[in-house]
Amino acid sequence: MNNIVLNIKNKIKDEKVIVACSTGVDSCVLLDLCLKALSNKQVVVAHVNHGMRKESEIEEEYIVDFCNKNSILFEVEHLRFDSITSFESAARSKRYAFFEKVAKKYQAKYVLLAHHANDNLETMLMRFLKQSSLKGYAGIEEESCFKNLILYRPLLKVSRLEIEEYANNN
To answer: What is the maximum span of the chain, computed from C-alpha positions, in angstroms?
Structure first.
């Protein structure tokens, strides 16, 4: 994971960065790696509480407490849905709008997301089953654009198992 720390440091340099953190193991590992690569003052944690599970409130309390104890800026968004028929699509749209708002507030151009190799494989399989385009079959891009933001996924070549091992050791 040392190479990920170096990649983050070299890419972000002195800029502020938004780290999307759900409090799952993958996003917490991403946050830890960012804190090893950058100063706390460069990092802004963006947490989205979907309000779909009773654990959501506990997870929010955890990340807010962690950020307060470590002097890290954070923003929390509470999402509510009238219907869950198109939950995935609506949730993604609302999350990205929130990331855009937070990035604008802190003048950050990067949003770091914790997608990893297993997510990429799942995406590729889903796109294959839906008969996607050749570009779609390539999977998730490590770096992509969303409006004026650069979405950067530094864990994209790391397996879920490697992430869990890192979390256990760190």
So the answer is: 47
